[in-house]
């Protein structure tokens, strides 16, 4: 941290003491950071909490700080974790995260994420960040609708039913910066409407406490995608009413899988490898084992939509050969 900051000319003693990269105009410092919003595509989903920003809007960052509470955001990028996920940008490109305040909305806080590697700070890359948030938001919307309907049928009050929302990031381009090493001009990043200073993992690697709402959402997302997609790395904050606000979830999609990723699990015979490659269609092939680990038991809500818990396991590949690919175990 100290070395990185030294290279971009920030006063180290100041930054180390309070964890702030800079405190901008609030302290009368000369340092500044201005972002231009280039896409709000993630707002186009009914299960997201929108950013409130508009495309082409310029945002002056007033304050930027590292937060120990954001450690969870970077766990996905540890070597051990990356080795277990597909070889694609969303699972592999490590990012730095800061808490940011924006002059336009001083009463709120945001999370600014920038890829660590320069080649991943591109417009094409951040589109995937928005796409995953938007898709997760769509699954959240479906889940919330189902949850309300289920409660209504059970004669329960639905007005204050906790729900799942996904923070909708905007894609931004740096247009002015005092931190060319970390946040260079022209680089693309994401800005998430997320005010809480902590991010908690809900469904990540099977070691998390069992949070009913998060677990039911995890199962329902697999169910409502017909077993084709899985919302992974479910993290965020539990709000006062019990609702969850998620940040930076990852979508495990068939199109993003690679054979190499599939084979990182157990060693397979050559014939089985060929069958696996043919069965790349449904994400469930790689997710089948993960599903049980991440979702060790069902919630009462799960039992209403998938009582036999067969969403993932029953699905077959595009080849239709659930037996020959050897992964569709019961
Ligand atoms: Zn379940």
TrEMBL record:
In terms of PROSITE patterns, this protein maps to: ALPHA_KINASE (PS51158)
Domain of life of the organism encoding this protein:
Eukaryota
The GO terms describing molecular function are: ATP binding; protein serine/threonine kinase activity
Pfam families, alphabetized: Alpha_kinase
Q: Which Gene3D superfamilies match?
A: MHCK/EF2 kinase
Q: What is this protein called?
A: Uncharacterized protein
